[in-house]
Amino acid sequence: MTDKNTGPARALEPRYYTDREIYRRELSTLLARTWQFAGHVSQLPDSGDYFTVTIAEQNLFCMRGGDGRVRAFYNVCQHRAHELLRGSGNCRVITCPYHAWSYRLDGRFLSGPNVKSVPDFPRGDIRLTDVRMEIFCGFIFVNLDPDAAPMAEWFPGAQEELHEYVPDIEQLQPLLWLEIPEHCNWKVSVENYSECYHCRINHRTFSTGVVRPETYDIQPHGRCLRHTSECQNLEQLSYPVDLAANPHAGKYSSWFLWPAFSFQVYPGNLLNTYHWRPAGVDRVTVWRGWFTSGGGESKVVRDLAAQDRATTVAEDIRLVESVQRGLNSRGYRPGVLVIDPESGVNSEHSLRAMHQWLREDLG
Q1: What's the topology of domain 36-143?
Q2: For the chain, where do the domains classified as CATH 2.102.10.10 start and end?
Q3: How far apart are the C-alpha atoms of 129 and 226, rounded to whole Å?
Q4: Is the dihedral of CA 322, 209, 248, 270 positive or negative?
């Protein structure tokens, strides 16, 4: 598609992927004002259970309170700024290891050594700083912007559709997580995921054993990129599928939630996820999650995860790391995006949408 004033849409300037100052701006604006995956509710089955997580270089923790509610807090004591919790575990009271100031599970101040000696000690005013949090199909998301619009406005219809494709999604738990370090800017990896123009050329197993590329399409809905495709014929699928299990059992679908998380449903209603954790201007960790009912054992899911890691994931690592090297080349000029008015697999219209979101969120 061509704009009469600006010409064809082009890829972003290399500085968006290589400039440390732009990365710092992303941390303080884009990544701190968007919905980020923190964890799964199955990590917090009991009162007092917690886990820590870092989002946009901010140390946080999620905890289930005595009232059963899940909350998120900045992981910092309100006395002298020591970190409160490490890793994951369970506690009845949140106690700072520095001076033993303590807090209830809902973040309210409880006590501290010798605080009674302080005239007019403002006990009722002291509490942990909470973080905006939502539970989305059993997944915990946080947003460092307290005024952020709810996820339903960011990703309209996504939660309802996920329940249609995976009716038991609330009962699913992770069977395994795969941690995949990539030597590239996080956006290079996200962009690679968000177009299938390269799939036939680079992902033979995915293109012949999971999806039918000629039916693949991606469309933006709010800040969600909706991937859809028919699956391959049963005899060509790389794993068994019961097409009668669900009206959508024969489809591949993905809901990429800008900027760094995606739900994928493989044929057979198999749920898996991607989430990206930036670790520097040219480093990102990609986490692949695979889910079963109650986290129960499944040879099919384990075999599919192993196949995916050995094929599509390994192929993508080579691609994105090559792109990152190319972005540092003095010879590169931003190329024209191939935007087909009819959309389809050989179109990069999804990247144009993402680039617009990036510009808006960087401010």
Answers
A1: Rieske Iron-sulfur Protein (2.102.10)
A2: 36-143
A3: 34
A4: negative
Question: How many Å apart are CA 286 and CA 182, to the nearest integer?
Answer: 7
Block means of pLDDT (10 residues each) for the chain, length 363 residues? 64 97 97 98 98 97 98 98 98 98 98 96 97 98 97 97 95 97 98 86 75 84 92 68 81 94 92 97 98 95 92 94 97 93 86 96 89
Q: Which two tokens stand for residue 67?
A: 């009232």
CATH class as words, domain 153-362: alpha beta
3-state secondary structure (DSSP) of residue 49: strand
Task: Provide the pLDDT for residue 4.
Answer: 44
Q: In what order do the strands lie in the sheet with 88-90?
A: 70-74, 58-64, 49-55, 88-90
Rounded CA separation 134/273 (Å): 17
Which pTM does this prediction carry? Answer: 0.93
DSSP 8-state secondary structure symbol assigned to residue 285: E
Full DSSP string of 246-276: -TTTTEEEEEEETTTEEEEEETTTEEEEEEE
CA distance 335 to 319: 17
What pLDDT score was predicted for residue 235? 66
Q: What crossing angle do the helices spanning 349-362 and 186-193 adopt, rounded to 10°?
A: 150
